[in-house]
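Handout, page 2. Input:
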Amino acid sequence: MSGQQPKEAVLEVVTQPLASSGLDLEDVEMSVAGRRQLVRLLVDKSGGVTLDEIAEATRLVSSLLDEQDVLGDAPYTLEVTSPGIDRPLTLPRHWQRNISRLVKVTPREGAPFIGRVMAAGESSATLDVEGDTKEVSYADTAKARVEIEFNRPDLSNGPRRSQKAPRRSQVGARAARAADGPHKDAEPAKSQEEE
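Output:
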């Protein structure tokens, strides 16, 4: 590992073992935190990563870094995490993992726009921009990020109208009736002796 920068050495040692575990190594961030070095790895996979997968990846990376003596004798803190929602979409797999999400795209030429990712391939994505279909080439995109939506529509079966949630008063009335016991018009339950 001599002659390599610490980040490149970490990448070389952990990328393939993480891939064998089904995880993509998205980035390695290294910084100094007091006397220790902070090593942060961002991992992801299609469908997202679970906490158990993060824990397993942490154990794997920790043992690899120690066995390979990548960081020498310097103390370090290891963090393995998943990228946040605000991660830029820079690779085809990032676009593919965000199908049905709203994204803000800043093209290399032209004004930024917001659209919903409908499909994503190896060189471009298809977006729904205010009802119009727009093909977005990754090579012509300066920046793209997922927009946070609190009430994201479920588009798994195609576009559909949203359903109204029950009014609060209806929900409250149902909860009150349930708490008060059976409704006054409900028949009392029969005991086994009466049957």
